[in-house]
Amino acid sequence: MQAQLGPSSQTLNEPEERLLLANEVLTHKSNNLQEMPMSFSAGDVVKLKSGGPSMTIEKIFLQDNTEYATCVWFDETTEKTKGFATASLEPAEPPPMKKVIGVSSTTRRR
């Protein structure tokens, strides 16, 4: 079996073809890992899916093909930091909007 490589029309023998194919597969896998979308970003406010306080993501990192987030939160007045698998996190609900009483932008003075 022989294959041609690109526009140069170089002919490859079977071992070379297998090596080329293996290299393409490894390159494709490597590119996919680098392009893997992150589910969260530093600064996002999250909570554990099982409940708990709102936490701010400090950084995201990969370890053993698993995405982790280092989170920071306060336990009363003590700052806490811990890493969590991002699969265990969800976006925290934003705090309720405070009702502001005042003059609206559509009110005109006479």
What order do the helices and strands come in, and which of them pair?
Elements: E1 3-5, E2 10-12, H1 14-34, E3 45-48, E4 55-63, E5 66-75, E6 78-85, E7 89-91
Describe it for me?
With 110 residues, this protein is α+β, with helices and mostly antiparallel strands. The chain folds into two domains: 1-36, no CATH class; 38-94, SH3 type barrels. Helices cover 19% and strands 36% of the residues. It contains one helix and seven strands, in the order E-E-H-E-E-E-E-E. It has one helix spanning 14-34; strands at residues 3-5, 10-12, 45-48, 55-63, 66-75, 78-85, 89-91. Strands 6-5-4-3-7 form a five-stranded antiparallel sheet, with no helix packed on it. The chain has a two-stranded antiparallel sheet with strand order 1-2. Strand 1 (3-5) and strand 2 form a beta hairpin. The radius of gyration is 26 Å and the shape is elongated. The termini are far apart.
Top keywords for this entry?
disordered N terminus, alpha+beta, five-stranded antiparallel beta sheet, SH3 type barrels, two-stranded antiparallel ribbon, 110 residues
- Helix content bin: 10-25%
Widest beta sheet: strand line-up: 6-5-4-3-7
Number of strands: 7
Distance between the termini: 89 Å
**CATH class category of the largest domain:** Mainly Beta
Overall pLDDT confidence: 76
State the CATH topology of the largest domain. Answer: SH3 type barrels
CATH architecture verdict of the largest domain: Roll
Low-confidence stretches: 1-9, 25-36
- What's the Cα radius of gyration? 26 Å
What's this entry about, in short?
With 110 residues, the protein is an alpha+beta fold.
